[in-house]
Amino acid sequence: MKRIAYLCLSDGWGGLEMNQLRNAQQMQHRGHSILLIANKESPIATAAAQANLPLYIVAQKPKYYQWRFAMKLARHLIKNGFEHLFFRNNRELSIAASVRFFSFGKVRVHYFMEMALGGKKTQFFRTLRYRLIDSWICPLPYLQLQVWKQTKVSKRKVKEIPSGLIFQSAYPLPKEAARIKLDWPVEMKLILVVGRIDPKKQQAFVWESFSQRTSPNEMLIFVGAPTPDQDNSYHLNLLQSIKGHPKHNQVLWAGFQNDIALIYSAADAVIMAADQETVGMVTIEALKFACPVVGANNGGTKELIETYGGGLCFRSLDQNDLNLKLDKVLSGQTPPIFQAAFEQHFDFGRVCAQVETEVLGLKAPIFQ
């Protein structure tokens, strides 16, 4: 058994934060002692409290050069016997590296990468910081190659371990029943865009593409909300654009949804239009529930669809190609998903076993 601290200073509630929480929960279930470090009243702190995860509440933002906070955190972790620090936000790299420095290596730090590098990171100050990272875990092979090519991180530190999923023997409800429970149209083709309302997620691009479609039997559903305490002008402009369009009655704003199994069970297709989506957790979750994906041909979504099937890729930011691929998916021309390989790769038991042996240094996993 190990004592593991999870650092998450974000006030958002997206794939990164959810993955951090889910991993902490699974490692706790396997017998490890867990501590989540988060800001008071942040979504992840609230969710952790509801899940009975131990919390260390702070008041910090994920920005660079917070040496005083890192020193205080290192002392707290050493005092309470925590040997490892896991983090996922690249803006917390400096804090995590400083924790290792101020702990004199007593706290080992591990970066679970969920954000693309965005170009070469070989500057001296970055390389110095990266040397203080004990493990750099990439959820997809293309990200591992990216780290090897664009940094000077030692190859032995860079590992490929996916984000874990819990697979159930049966889905909650069939499509029609799921739609009735959500109060969504039963007879229409439902096209989902899942994720926070943000320019990077390209909801406006999807709407512009959808506005060109002529079928009255389709509905576009936005599942998600803007990030709290951030500029929401993108969301407001999109609302205004749709409101004044003849197809406004074919758009539904569903807001944030906790029951992801229900929304994917109800959908005919999910569009992942973000340009260079690093991991593509929405794609992973949609494939888990056998919901067809139409995704941009780059980043994590491209790699997932090419590896496991279950969807089609379109040329990024090309409205005509998006509509062409969407037509194919809605008409039943989606390539089948390689379900057995998909489930084996993303199974949380396997993922935790990898973390225990490849990251925590256990000679064998606690249990498979």
Brief account:
The chain is 40% helix and 17% strand. The chain has helices at residues 15-29, 43-50, 67-79, 93-102, 124-130, 141-150, 175-182, 203-211, 233-243, 260-266, 281-288, 299-308, 319-330, 339-346, 348-359; strands at 3-7, 33-39, 55-58, 84-87, 108-112, 135-138, 158-160, 189-194, 218-223, 251-255, 269-272, 293-296, 311-314.
Structural class: alpha/beta
Largest sheet: 7 strands, parallel
Order of helices and strands: EHEHEHEHEHEHEHEHEHEHEHEHEHHH
Extract low-pLDDT stretches. none
In whole angstroms, the N-to-C terminal distance is 14 Å
If you average the pLDDT, what whole number results? 93
Characterise this structure.
The chain has helices at residues 15-29, 43-50, 67-79, 93-102, 124-130, 141-150, 175-182, 203-211, 233-243, 260-266, 281-288, 299-308, 319-330, 339-346, 348-359, and strands at 3-7, 33-39, 55-58, 84-87, 108-112, 135-138, 158-160, 189-194, 218-223, 251-255, 269-272, 293-296, 311-314. It starts with a strand and ends in a 9-residue tail after the last helix. The mean pLDDT is 93. It is of the alpha/beta class and 368 residues long. Helices cover 40% and strands 17% of the residues. The longest helix is centred in the N-terminal third of the chain and has 15 residues, at 15-29. It contains 15 helices and 13 strands.
